[in-house]
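=== RUN LOG ===
request id: a7f3
mode: sequence -> structure
chains: 1
length: 196
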Amino acid sequence: MRSKVAGIVLIIGSLYYIVAEAISATFFKASFANTYIFHTISELGIPNANSPLFWLMNSAFILIGLALLFANFYKFKDYIIKNKAIFYILTLVTSLGVIIVGLIHGGNPLTSGYHTLGAIMAILGGNILLILVSRLMGEFGKYQIITLILGLIGFVVFWIMCFNMESIYMPVFERLSVYTMIIWSFLTGVFLIRCK
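=== RESULT ===
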């Protein structure tokens, strides 16, 4: 029962994130495609005329952070058999990072540093978490292989983004490094529901 509850929470959190971003992008002051290609996710969460549904995007950050925190500590921890302390620490870093991004928006010189810190905690911490999770479980089956691949993709793309911050396509790199974790959250939800 605990596995199913944790799995449902992760699935709801990941789907809510995808839908909330799509809706926020639809109402952003740019075309849908241009929003995804040329505007960062954080821009969708800034409360200004460009993003009238900023609250929806920020709620998605907070919800996925809480979902990850709950699911990992409530049940997924039981599948980690090595170095649980590292798992707990990275879960906290990632979850708190995403929540910070949702609570403290970018675009404000007084708070943008905290927002950036939260983004680094979430994206870098999250993809490192995926890489380690794949190696800290008891077996290395299909789920673990997919987790490792997602983590490696996200980790590499994150660093590509860091060295291309001035590129007009930087938002694409940002999204790719974030979506690895959203996909993982959904797949982990399915994994937990299927586990007995």
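=== NOTES ===
Residues 55 and 74 are 28 Å apart (CA to CA).
The longest helix spans residues 2-26.
=== END ===
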